[in-house]
Amino acid sequence: MLNKREDLCRKIITKYLGPPSSIRKPDFLKTPEYPTGLELDIPYYDYGFAIEVQQTRDQLKDELCEENWIALRYVWYYEDPFEKIPDILRELGLIP
Question: Could you say which DSSP state residue 56 is in?
Answer without folding.
Answer: S
